[in-house]
Amino acid sequence: MSSEEEREAPTDVAYREITDSRGRLYRVGETDRDILGHSRKLMVWLPWLAMFGISVFEYAYGSAEDVLSDAHGWSQTNTFWILSVWTFFQAGVSFPTGWMREKGILKARSAMMIGSVLALLGFLSISHFHSVFLAILGFGVLGGVGSGLVYSTCINMVGKWFPEKRGGKTGFVNGGFAYGAVPFIFIFNFLFDTGNYQTVLDLIGVWVLLAVAVSGWFFKDPPKNWWPHDVDPLKAVGKSARSLLKNPPATKQYRPMEALKTGQLPLIWLLLVLTAGVSIFGISFQVPFAKEVGFGPLVAANSAGILSIVNGVGRGVVGWLSDIWGRKLALIFVILVLGLSQFGVLWAGNIHSEWLFLVFAFFSGFGGGAFYPMFASLTPDYFGENYNATNYGIAYSGKVISGLFGGGLGAEAVDAWGYNGAYVIAGVISLVAAGLALFLRHPGRPRGEKGISPNPQPVSREAV
């Protein structure tokens, strides 16, 4: 056992390390209460609260843009670049955060504390600085890094504590990152103006600070290779049998270079680039499109609210379904919904049907968020938990490209071909991504193999 694992392991609780027929190690015997002093369910609720807090950055910012432009004298291009820089750093910090976490340089609690302070600074910058450069530096860079630290830490935390049924749990936590913005979408649309914008933004910054810091204070990783004591890691039996049959554990703990060489991690990265790009396009242009076709502010605000709510709830629902259907099938389903809904939003806008627009905003929101927990669950399913912070950091870094593709290139497409051309392109890209997802496969596991380990031949040894 490495020195890092020894530091993580309880000193007074016996555990066994068992090895399956492929050589994968599982550490069993310690309960969640032995390690944490309480149920591991808290490691779902605390990350959820933190993700709920930081969701205002991405999903409510578009509703605040007009007031920010009036208050600071910014152009639409200025406000666009502030959010684009935020997206770049929020996604880009995921890989270095994962690397530092696995090297022991950055503990989970420290990452959350740093993230909470940087998030506060992000909101203070757009509240008090008229300079676009300072707003980009504060909200875009510092706020983006802070949000990325929190996002990466929360997603990996819940995945480590629920290796046998991570789909539903990861989806629930991930959902907070979307519907947590809903109250602020309506605040920004109806209670936010140039007379109170500083007070509102300062209070939101304090809320994010408290939500993240209080949650993060109680974060703690399980020991490496830890497996729930009441779930057999070698046989699909009991309450987790269905999920383990559909989503068997990784055949080994893949280091990042090993994961890249399988070809599956690059494919996951590419799929995230394409799907997140379409999702960001929808978030960025759905409200402007609604206003362009003549829908009133209530419809525009409701469409944004619906998108955020369903975006978040859909993550939890599809995460749960993936435990039943399997991650790959659930992911393909979600990408198809995302693609087809782009055509639906465009059609509803062109025929000026407000109710149809809201219906397709519902489906766009559902598809535009539910793929995130699928990638967050697929990565440890395929490559194991021990290096997941880095492996998922590589996969999630695809959102760096998506931010430019969905926002910047989306704006270029709107300018060149109008909303008709832009929405058609977005829909086609999603359909292509759904086709590519058919090539996903579990590394090291023969095609068609069922169960979590055929002909298990465990080798056990006692350890304290």
Q: Quick one: biggest sheet?
A: 3 strands, antiparallel
What order do the helices and strands follow?
A: HEEHHHHHHHHHHHHHHHHHHE
- Total E-strand runs: 3
Strand content: under 5%
pLDDT averaged over residues: 86
Largest sheet, order of strands side by side? Answer: 2-1-3
The best one-word shape is globular
Query: How does the helix and strand content classify structurally?
Result: mainly alpha
Helix segment count? 19
**For the CA atoms, what is the radius of gyration?**
22 Å
Percent helix: over 70%
What are the segments in which pLDDT stays under 50 over at least 5 consecutive residues?
A: 1-11, 453-464
Q: Compute the separation of the termini in Å.
A: 11 Å
Key traits:
3-stranded antiparallel β-sheet; disordered N terminus
In short:
By secondary structure, the chain is mostly helical. The protein contains 19 helices and three strands.
Would you kindly provide a written description of the structure presented here, covering whatever features stand out?
The protein is mainly alpha-helical. The protein contains 19 helices and 3 strands. The protein has a 3-stranded antiparallel sheet, with no helix packed on it. Strand 1 and strand 2 (25-28) form a beta hairpin. The model is unreliable at 1-11 and 453-464 (pLDDT under 50).
